[in-house]
Amino acid sequence: MEAPARKTGMSVKDLRQLADSLFAKKTPLVSLWQEIAENFYAERADFTVKRYLGDDYAGNLMTSYPLLVRRDLADQIGTMLRNRNKPWFSIIAKDTRLGQDYEVKAWLEWATGTMRRSMYAPATLFTKATSQGDADFATFGQTCVTVRLNRNNDDLIYRCWHLRDVAWIEDEDGKICAIFRRWKPSLHTLMRMFDKPSASLHPKVRELVVKTPNDECECYHFMVAAEMFDGPANGMPWRSIYYDIDHSHQMESVAQKNREYVIPRWLTVSGSQYAHSPATVAALPEARLLQSMTYTLLEAGEKVVNPPLVATEQVVRSDVAIFAGGITWVDSEYDERTGASLRALTQDARGMPLSVEMQKDSRSLLAQCFYLNRLTLPQRTPEMTAYEVGQRVQEYIRNALPLFEPMEAEYNGALCEETFNVIMDAGGFGAIQDRPRKLEHVDFQFASPLHEAIEEQKGHKFIEASQLLAQAAAIDKSVYGVVDAKVALRDALAGIGVPTKWTRSESDVDAMERQMAAQQQTAELLASMQQGAGVVKDLATAQSLAAPAGA
């Protein structure tokens, strides 16, 4: 008897149960995110509560300093890693041997410009999505951004989703293999998106959209690896499924080449697919202390300026008026010699300066928790030598590397790779035949203060090597052959950011060298011929003079 075929993937029903389970297990984490948001990102503090228009987001805080340091870090992420005023990324060949190929470099520079213009087109909402993502990344250690074509398939569209509404799992390699997003679109939105032959709306939705088009419908979006889904993959690595939760109905299931979701994670620990922000982990206790300390200082200062009063019973005949020009009425028959009818309690304010110093120390620690003391490049003065500048830059690199390295790899790298794939599939880089044949795979290089400092080291190294070479050549001229000046100069020029258009290709330089060598050879040949002609002339003259003498 033939054994029944084993099920290799999940059905839509299985995926829905998995999504419900993931969101249920995520409840304690959402509560933690709520507390973190209340202290550092008040605008996003709606993980467990519902916000209404006009709510005072920071009404529970005594000081806004934790909000400011989080905002500064989020702004620095965008400014330093994606500075719009200059190209912050470039497409490079994954095969480093093609790095000096002039044709490949020219195409990569053109593709970089094309991709940059596509990303920053006004309709893409790239700046809006990444600014929201930077704030989530700095506060919670992760964010969720989607990259896809818009509804008309004529432009990119970027969106940042609330972490409350997204859950994911990892595969055995530690990579995200399934993403689940909760979503509450209006019925009218569902009709616009899924009223097409490739999709299927529930009949109840078609019925209700006529009566109440603005009512919301709870839905799921599943983006799972093709091997996890029990259905045809069609050669695509991902499966996108839209599921109507209210009516337990699958609206659309499409095989996709791109994952669409970019989920950069700052710092993860083993056993959890969710990351955390090392900034807020260290700063949360300090933020709680600062809020409590500020409240105590405010209350103590108010008691010093407006101290509590002690009134004698049945003597004060009116409310105590402690405002400027106020009058408090006292019984005229009361004898003040038995004690004041109204007196202030003495407050000891000698501890106020110490409390203020503690508050300053707490603020300084918060700034350190958010790396604000490490984001400033070292100052350079004219009297500093190249060695001193290099040492300071090296120190900056060591301090900034833990901050920038995961952001570039997890955040900018994933964002650029997904964008490149979407543009490539849409034909935005032209036909595949237009690409250089040598170029098969591409990678990305990013311009950040860290990378700029690292690349600038090549220029300093070239200068130091030139100086050492000149000193050695004073002793032995043969040392000039030790350093390949052409290769060193090209690396130094690339390190300081000289465009490829400013330089000649290696083949052009070789042709120029051959031409110069040929010209020099021709000049030497002409010089030798002129010298030979002069010798012949001198011999003829000598012979003509010697002939009469001989006769």
Outline the fold blueprint.
Blueprint lengths: L11 H14 L1 H14 L24 H17 L7 E5 L8 H18 L6 H15 L3 E6 L6 E6 L4 E5 L5 E8 L3 H8 L8 H9 L7 E7 L12 E7 L4 E8 L4 E2 L15 H28 L3 E3 L30 E3 L7 H18 L16 H40 L16 E5 L2 H25 L11 H11 L10 H45 L1
Antiparallel strand pairs: 1-12, 2-3, 2-9, 4-5, 5-6, 6-7, 7-8, 10-11
Summarize the structure.
With 551 residues, this protein is α+β, with helices and mostly antiparallel strands. Helix content is 48%, strand content 12%.
Structure write-up:
A hairpin with a 6-residue loop joins strand 2 (144-149) and strand 3 (156-161). The chain has helices at residues 12-25, 27-40, 65-81, 102-119, 126-140, 187-194, 203-211, 278-305, 352-369, 386-425, 449-473, 485-495, 506-550; strands at 89-93, 144-149, 156-161, 166-170, 176-183, 219-225, 238-244, 249-256, 261-262, 309-311, 342-344, 442-446. With 551 residues, it is an alpha+beta fold. The chain is 48% helix and 12% strand. Residues 1-5 have low confidence and may be disordered. Helix 6 (187-194) packs across helix 7. The chain has a 5-stranded antiparallel sheet with strand order 4-5-6-7-8, covered by helices on one side. The protein has a 3-stranded antiparallel sheet with strand order 3-2-9. Strands 1-12 form a two-stranded antiparallel sheet. It has 13 helices and 12 strands.
From N to C, what is the helix and strand string?
HHHEHHEEEEHHEEEEHEEHHEHHH
- Unreliable spans are 1-5
Please identify the structural class as seen in this structure.
Answer: alpha+beta
Cα end-to-end separation: 130 Å
Largest sheet: 5 strands, antiparallel
Helix content: 40-55%
Number of helical stretches of at least 4 residues: 13
Total number of beta strands: 12
Global geometry:
flat
